[in-house]
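Each field is set out underneath.
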Amino acid sequence: MNNRFFSSLALRNIKSNKQLYIPFLLSSTAIIAMFFLMVSLMTNKFVQERSSSLPTLFMIGVVVIGIFSVIFILYTNSFLIKRRKKEIGLYGILGLEKKHVAKILFFESLFSSLLSIAAGLLAGLLFGRLVFMLLNFMLRMPNDIAYTTSLLSVGATVALFVLIFGITLLYNISQFTFANPIKLLKGKQEGEKEPKGSLILFILSLIFLGWGYGISITIPDPLAAIEKFFLAVLLVIIGTYLLFISGSIFILKALKNNKRIYYRPGAFISISGMLYRMKQNAVGLANICILASMVIIAVSTTITIYLGSEETLENRFPYEHNLKLFGDMDYVAEMNNRFFELQDEVIALTEENGLEVADMESYRYESFFGNLEDGSFVFEQSSVDGDLPVLMMVIPLQDFNGMTGENYSLADDEALFYHSTKSYEKEELAIGNKTYSLTEIENEFSADMALTESIALVVPDETHLLDLREDYMEQFPNSTHITVDAEIGWNTEGTEAAEKALAEQLESEYNGVSGSFSRYESRDSQREEWYSINGGFLFLGVFLGLLFTLGTLLITYFKQISEGFDDRGKFQIMQKVGLDENMIKDSTKSQIIWMFILPIVIATIHVSFAYPIVRKLLLIFGVTNDMTWLMTFIAVVIAFAGIYWMIYRVTSKVYYSIVK
């Protein structure tokens, strides 16, 4: 028998089993399209230009979707091959050798995989373009965002799913290679043994979840959050699968052992049916839970970033006009004169443009990197052993009093002290050749100090800045970056035209001051660009939300179909012994707890524990208002729960039509 015979037989098998293959092909196509879209977004020019951290986050998404794809396709394939065991067993009875059956399965897998991969790539390309067009229209971005892909995206997608379908082929062949044909003839009628609840797996699930939650809760700063985010996500995913596989069995067995609950017609059918299929159900529920978590995090965080645009602008640009003066190694002592001259100049320029200075803040500072070691701040030039160094900002008392409106006074060996982590509890701090007695103060400084572990040290006068610089230069004589810098910020009152004219004049005049280097930035001039960037994040969040919601719809639909086929024979027997349709409906309603409430509740718990690490990541974008994220989070959870409820209602009708 040649390959043409086996390929023709494989095509005929697919056509005759179209009721099984069509859902499998559709689900495989959708999963491939999802992965292709994620890889395309990772390499998308728009994504790469938004932020340096976005490609890393999308890489995490690619890995998560890749793991999800392996689990989901193996899950759907196991359902498919289970219902075809009788057919495969018949081949053996009719005289076909196992190698012949393997060839048939090979061609079936070849045709279905090629069709799924081709359709998935095409669907991903079309869906990506259509959604980008829709979101461009809805969000009305200043410039349209183009959906692009590459040969690398296509190659990565094809390679992954060829590998996955290859694994499914080996699994399918193994199902009849080591099985008795007579046993295969029983097919799906072969009963499943009651799954045993594994205490070890249940404990491991709690360990993995606790580990992931612990990383989120104890994360020290936003820069560390970027590094640890992927590990936390991976641990929670593993913990979620183990929890649903093991924990759900414990709960169902507890319900079964409760005679008052179990020995009722509806509960008896639902609990016993779910218990015997819990391994497959658990994987489906875990997939839904993970996708729900992705939707909630992706949409809530990007909406928060967009809604917090004004807050971000105010944190990034504290005043309407912001001028930063960078010191120079050759004229450190002259910095003071230039600092005060600049303040007089900008006031004069403001008044010349017909505006009034509403309020002004100015201060000099010096920045060092180092580490806290036993009551001392030890200077460092770079990170030590891979750890991020501590950032110290040193400010003269005169400038600090001007910033805050306070009237502190300090002796020569005293300093005001702020530590972002509040972990330094000693009353003295040695830095360079000086030791200061500390008085703790609250945060009166830039929001950027929250990005990493930071210290603010307010010293008696500017001579201490020069002394500390000399101490640093003794330790690192070749250093070229320790200088005294300055910030000047002020608000103005007047017409919008005058504000714009002043901003243009200051930008042309002070972006490159002679004798030093300076940078001027206007909040208004940055607003349009900032909203464009944050609108881009919102665009991506909505796009990912749609993508993951589609995945949730797909999982729920396929799960209902698989459960319907598994339950149909059982319910037909029940009807023959007197079970009416109303009782069938009542028994299916009890599964809402597992299909609807449980994944949403667990996903909400996941996202709640993810709040600390998400909050740290939001600080990178300048969002510091916790209430904005909390309200957005609640709204997204409610909205997604409503969408998921509609998905369940629609797919439950499919389930009931199969069972009936």
User: Anything to note?
Assistant: The mean pLDDT is 78. The chain has 22 helices and ten strands. Residues 32 and 214 are 33 Å apart (CA to CA). Strands lie at 321-326, 356-373, 376-379, 390-396, 414-419, 428-431, 434-440, 454-459, 484-493, 517-522.
